[in-house]
Design a protein that fits this description.
Elements (H helix, E strand, L loop, with lengths): L1 H8 L1 H27 L2 E21 L12 E3 L3 E3 L5 E11 L3 E18 L6 E19 L4 E9 H14 L6 E16 L2 E15 L3 E5 L4 E13 L7 H27 L6 H15 L4 E4 L3 H4 L2 E4 L3 H11 L3 E4 L5 E5 L2 E5 L8 H6 L6 H5 L3 E3 L9 E3 H6 L1
Parallel strand pairs: 12-14, 13-16
Antiparallel strand pairs: 1-2, 1-4, 1-11, 3-10, 4-7, 5-6, 5-8, 8-9, 9-10, 14-15, 15-16, 17-18
Amino acid sequence: MRLRTALDEWFVVVVVALLALALLGGWGAYGAVADDSDEEFEQRTVEAWSTTGGFDHSATVQAENEVFPVGTELSDRSMYFAEVAPELEATFTYAYDAPDGDVAVVLKADRVIRSVEDVDDEDDRVEHWAVNETTAQEETESLAPGEEQATSFSVDVPETAAEAEEIQEDLNESVGELETVVEVQMAIEGTIDGESVDRVDSYELVVEPDDTTYTVEAPAAEERTEERTEAVAVAGSSGFSGLSSVVLALLGICSVAALGVLGVARRKGTLAPSAAELERIDARYKREAFDDWISRGRLPADVRERSRIEIATLEDLVDVAVDCDRRVIEDERDGRYYVLDDDSLYVYAPEGLEDEESEDEDRVLEPDAQEAEEPTVIGDGSGEGGDALEDDSDDSGS
């Protein structure tokens, strides 16, 4: 009842709110359709496959010394002793990682002696001269992902250093810095991950000789990634996720349905409570407010025959009871309220019972069996339910 009253009072506000929710739901439904039909794509760079190439190197002790026995293999060191282990041995290993593939691989190792010079404010280096010599070459016709292809070579470091100095003296050139490297060129041709591949990569092992030692710098397992660009589907421009669009669409449907129900109820006049319903609510609230002055009971037929005084409201009847120092009796059988004062009977009939009053006057209520055996008692107290009681049979005999 309170909800209906509130809806009637705030009808315009509720309608505006439901219209806003319906529009929001329609937007969500459009977003759900737009996400499915207007799918967009953008170009993204993704990793397709990768290669791994690296060097393993060592030097075997060849000269007598007080530290390392002859024949000892010194491996993967950053520095070696040129006098006791002059020959550097190395192996380059290549492999690639991809979902699928089949390629032919050629590995060629070149010993390079060159004169280089760094350029100021530039990352590039100037190469004045270079001498190449192929030291090893390996090839395979078919290499699958995860399989390895390797090539091995050796460099006599003191001999190579002497050769480099001799070339520099022949050229009568003192500019630049001598450098000795082993450059491994890796050429692959075939198909990797469904795409045709034809490329050449290079890896370098750098040897820097000194008077009695030489250092080695080389990648142990350098990974290189091959990337490609592909079209990737992205979300539509509506800005709604699938679940959000569905929730908003359902919200819109419910809002439209609620608008229809409110409109029909308003047109039929059933939205607001009727006058009779409001009166019943008011009577119930008043009954609860005056509960301390009211007792429930049944009036005997002879008491009903007393002269009646009709009271307009329950509040007025309670005032009469207070003035007479009596209780208000709510008759359980006819729903009316009574106050007995001597030979007078004050009566209040709630809404809906007034039309039946004439019928009640002509109808004689038969006493219950319990009333026939026991006298009916009616409280005469001063407003308390447990005050002295008056026997109605005595009143009728006096």
